[in-house]
Write a structure and sequence with these properties.
There is one protein chain. The protein is α/β, with parallel strands linked by helices. It is about 50% helix and about 10% strand. It has 24 helices and 17 strands. The strands form five sheets. It has an eight-stranded mixed β-sheet, with helices on both faces. It has a three-stranded mixed β-sheet with strand order 10-17-12. It has a two-stranded antiparallel sheet with strand order 1-2. A hairpin with a 2-residue loop joins strand 14 and strand 15. Helix 21 runs antiparallel to helix 22.
């Protein structure tokens, strides 16, 4: 019986509490903004009255522009600090308000593209973890998009469908919390005969899947039925070299027909490999998600959709219930279109040397955006109302086929000929031609970061969102464990964000008109991430070169403007450290985080900006999938907190160059002082060089001390040393004492 109709107060499903630090943030922002204006005044006076040569004017101008960029980026961060809030959901009260049989159906989207970079066994674990949600199983439908169209991935999910019939009831009957099989069997689980039997089944499945991947094909001994053989034959004959190849859709589990080992219904499990054409753009992950949006509309059309990365498994079986505390219409936001959970990660080393947590992006900033109109969409762990993909609340955009509309009721079996025929049609490579998909309907095209761009466009249309951060992480995923993978990922993000920042939908123009200044500023902060490269590179190079030539370019320690620089540095770093630690961070991890921002500047952000410019000039580069494969030696070094270089990369060259230059400048500064120059005149330059040296310690170790495979390539060290010599040569002739 629905107790919502009974007398008495309705139990709360969620709470909202503004954070008290918002008052301090506002006061500090006013003080810091005044300091910025004072710094600009100091720069302008210096440019007008203290530059006597063209070179000195150019140096002062570079520092001025760098500070302008830093000031702008600081101003965008204030949007996150003006009104941070904390939410809490109470899923234990849900069944007092809503009968379990009335829970809305959910479609879950999981995308993968390469079985060698994204191991199928990991994707299977992700799927099984959500199939085992504490939720009516007949209301769950899991759609797996395989853009690689690989028989390896298909075989893995055929095995997962069989194992799932044992795993889902096992989790339900034993009230298991870790419902990802791999996470459960690597935890301290209770050893019982039933558990041992289930583990043997899982290990058997894992051995088959990993064995197939290792051999690059599915051996006949792994195929248990003629039906499986016929299904896999479709993938073996699928010709990806043809101009066009058709979509492949396979219903692996049907909730109306398939039951688990106890007789209970199984969730739907559908494998989708969309059609592709070499003559048509496929729009990467956004295109795959739109194909799933249409296929799912033709088969189940659930009102709520969850998007998940293939390596981001469910860590909390109550997550779906938490969502129902807000969706579809139980939040305090009438236009709420999605609920975003933070990305959390397992396997991080103690120092998190590559700042893989991204605490600002996934924790600190979202609570600030939640105090405005809601957080941005971060690509995974997000539950949408299907309606949000079809225009604003006040201006519904009709799909070209009525059956794809969010209010269409599917009353035919998902494995019926009519339903499958429509599903294949809407998954075809040319289906989107001359339609609104990607522009007004679905996930939006126009940026490599489809998640950021889609969330931004949805909020520009008037949709709001909610940030849900329970004490137990809802999802856990893998992080890159090599520096080159981290930098390549950041470079790809930079390109996609710049595509939005300099488009007609730029947050600085279109965004301000559509959603107001503060929300637009929060999105602009991400859109223009890459311009961070300019001030970081200037401050990493120019003060050190001037120091080597014995030229002071900053105020002396006894001048009033020195204290202005000191306040701005300590104030910005201090507030950032406090924000980091208040999101359950540690000082050690904060240090790694600030170091990675400095590392990204001369490397990923510079290369990302360059690639964006090349793309605008008609010289596009390809899209790379971040590897999810864990090598034993790499994992060991990562666990020890050792930076991984290993392979030569152009992005390592500027980093090694800056590291060497700052070390030479720091040591050379003492020589300058010993020659009788005032230490107070060079204190700031010595501090900047020394700060660079401290942050570059992993680079010196990799260049000189290490002998393992992860050391800095000798070619990179040699090239960087030559570049330092070249820079000093230029400074020697250009900078005169």
């Amino acid at each position: 019986m629905n107790t919502a109709t009974m007398p008495g107060p309705t139990p709360p499903l969620h709470s909202l509490r503004p954070l008290r630090r918002r008052h301090f943030n506002r006061l500090f922002a006013a003080v810091y903004a005044s300091a910025i204006l004072s710094l600009f005044y100091h720069h302008i006076l210096k440019l007008l009255h203290s530059t006597t040569t063209l070179v000195s004017f150019f140096m002062s101008f570079l520092l001025f522009i760098s500070d302008v960029v830093l000031a702008y980026m600081w101003s965008t961060t204030q949007a996150f600090r003006m009104n941070p809030v904390h939410r809490q959901a109470f899923p234990e009260n849900l069944q007092k308000v809503l009968d379990r049989k009335d829970f809305p159906a959910m479609d879950i989207f999981i995308c993968t593209a390469d079985p060698y970079k994204e191991p199928p066994i990991n994707v299977v674990n992700t799927a099984l973890s959500v199939m085992a949600y504490d939720y009516p199983t007949e209301k769950l439908s899991v759609y797996v998009s395989d853009d690689g169209g690989s028989e390896l991935t298909m075989f893995a999910f055929m095995e997962a469908a069989k194992f799932g019939k044992q795993w889902v009831p096992f989790c339900r009957e034993n009230n298991i919390t870790d419902r990802c099989p791999d996470a459960f069997f690597t935890s301290n689980y209770a050893l019982t005969p039933n558990t041992t039997e289930i583990k043997m089944m899982y290990e058997s499945m894992k051995m088959k899947v990993e064995g197939a991947v290792e051999k690059g094909k599915v051996n006949d001994e792994y195929i248990s039925s003629e039906e499986e053989r016929q299904v896999l034959s479709k993938y073996r004959t699928k010709d990806f070299t043809r101009q066009n190849h058709p979509s492949l859709i396979q219903v692996l589990l049907n909730s109306k027909e398939d039951v688990d080992s106890t007789g209970g219904a199984m969730p739907n499990l559908i494998y989708v490999s969309r059609g592709k054409s070499k003559s048509a753009a496929h729009h990467f992950k956004a295109g795959a998600l739109n194909a799933l949006l249409r296929v799912s509309a033709s088969m189940t059309n659930s009102p709520i959709i969850l998007t998940l990365d293939c390596d981001m498994y469910s860590n909390d079986p109550l997550t779906a219930k938490r969502v129902l505390c807000y969706l579809p219409n139980r939040s305090n936001r009438p236009n709420c279109g999605y609920v975003q959970f933070p990305q959390r990660y397992h396997g991080l080393n103690n120092a998190d040397i590559y700042a893989g947590e991204h605490k600002r992006l996934f924790l600190a900033n979202p609570i600030g955006m939640d105090g405005l109109n809601g957080p941005s969409y971060v690509g995974t762990g997000c539950f949408f109302r299907r309606r949000v993909f079809f225009g604003a609340l006040s201006s519904f955009v009709e799909p070209e086929i009525p059956d794809l509309a969010p209010d269409h009721i599917v009353d035919k079996p998902i494995n019926g000929r009519e339903v499958l025929s429509l599903a294949h049609h809407v998954a075809g490579c040319n289906y989107e031609n001359w339609t609104n998909w990607g522009s007004k309907i679905g996930f939006r095209y126009g940026s490599l970061v489809e998640d950021y761009y889609t969330g931004y466009r949805l909020q520009c249309e008037g949709w709001q969102s909610i940030f849900c951060d329970p004490s137990r992480p809802a999802f856990l995923g893998d992080v890159p464990i090599t520096l080159i993978d981290v930098l390549n990922q950041t470079k790809r993000w930079s390109v996609g964000l710049l595509e939005v920042g300099f488009s007609k939908y730029s947050p600085s123009t279109f965004g301000v008109r559509a959603m107001g200044v503060l929300m637009a500023q929060s999105y602009a902060h991400y859109a223009f991430w890459a311009i961070w490269c300019f001030p970081v590179t200037v401050y990493a190079v120019l003060p050190s070169l001037a120091l080597l030539r014995g030229i002071p370019i900053f105020p002396k320690v006894y001048e009033p403007s020195f204290f202005l620089y000191a306040f701005m540095f300590l104030g910005a770093y201090g507030q950032d450290c406090v924000d980091f630690i208040m999101t359950q961070g540690t000082f050690q991890r904060w240090w790694s985080d600030q170091r990675m921002w400095l590392i990204r500047g001369p490397s990923a952000f510079v290369f990302g900006t360059t690639e964006y410019v090349m793309k605008r000039l008609g010289m596009p580069r390809g899209f790379n999938v971040t590897s999810k494969v864990m090598d034993d030696e790499l994992s060991k070094r990562y666990d020890q907190g050792v930076f991984e270089f290993g392979v030569p990369s152009p992005m390592f060259v500027p980093l090694a160059t800056v590291a060497i230059l700052n070390l030479i400048a720091f040591l050379g500064g003492f020589v300058v002082i010993l020659k009788g120059r005032s230490f107070g005149s060079f204190f700031i330059q010595m501090f900047i060089a020394g700060f660079g040296v401290i942050n570059s310690l992993p680079f010196y170790e990799a260049m000189v001390l290490r002998r393992d495979k992860g050391r800095m390539p000798t070619k990179t060290t040699f090239t960087s040393t030559l570049l330092v010599g070249l820079l000093y040569g230029i400074a020697f002739f250009a900078l005169k004492i």
